[in-house]
Design brief:
Blueprint: E1 2-5, E2 10-13, H1 31-56, H2 70-93, H3 106-115, H4 118-131, E3 135-140, E4 147-152, E5 164-170, H5 177-180, H6 184-193, H7 197-207
The protein binds fe (ii) ion (FE2).
């Protein structure tokens, strides 16, 4: 698909496309909040990732160094935007439900095994979110195959290589400021109440055996 990048004056075949939002609004998350988040922030990561990939084709490799070089800066932004794309696609995908789950779901059993109880998991996730500047992400930890909530201060800051993200909670200010201002804590409840545990369970079932 030919995508026009008017802001940078380039036309080229974009490698990645913006995924549509499955819902317009959610309980406790307004259409305005979600459209800003999806249509500006998430879209920006995808389009800039495409832009960076295009620029890398012709970037100067002769003068590359680790202090400053065009190639280095592009590679850094490639990581930032790729991680931003992946995390936001997970975030938007696992919302749209009613927050309810059944006790026989594999993900719920695993959460209880690894955290002791669902409430203990929820407390750990929300506490991690309050402590984070960017993300709290429930992952399968490759070290011991256990579920763990990792704290990422940015898309590209705090991720553990090999960890498989199962549930991503965005706590960048852009995720809640339209609806909640500086009250980050009040955003966490509607996030939990809109989770689609069927999708989260399917994702866990798909990846649970990678490190088993
Ligand atoms: Fe975000």
């Amino acid at each position: 698909m030919l995508v026009q990048f008017l802001e940078v004056g380039m036309n080229y075949d974009a490698q990645y496309e913006v995924k549509a939002l499955k819902y317009k609004e959610l309980k406790g998350l307004s259409a305005k909040q979600l459209s800003f988040h999806h249509d500006i922030h998430y879209k920006g990561y995808v389009t800039r990732r495409n832009f960076v990939h295009e620029k890398l084709k012709t970037a100067d490799k002769a003068g590359v160094n680790a202090n400053y070089s065009e190639f280095r800066e592009l590679k850094k932004e490639e990581t930032f935007n790729a991680a931003g794309q992946l995390l936001h696609e997970l975030y938007f995908d696992i919302l749209g439900g009613d927050g309810k789950f059944s006790e026989d779901m594999e993900i719920i059993k695993k959460i209880k095994d690894d955290f002791g109880s669902f409430d203990a998991f929820k407390e750990d996730l929300t506490t991690t979110a309050k402590a984070s500047r960017g993300w709290a992400v429930l992952c399968i930890d490759p070290t011991d195959n256990k579920l763990r909530n990792f704290l990422l201060d940015g898309h590209d800051n705090g991720g553990v290589l090999g960890a498989i993200p199962i549930l991503a909670l965005d706590v960048y200010e852009h995720a809640y400021y339209v609806d909640y201002g500086a009250d980050k804590a009040s955003y966490l409840t509607p996030f939990l109440n809109n989770l689609d545990w069927n999708i989260i369970n399917q994702r866990f079932s798909k990846f649970k055996s990678v490190y088993a």
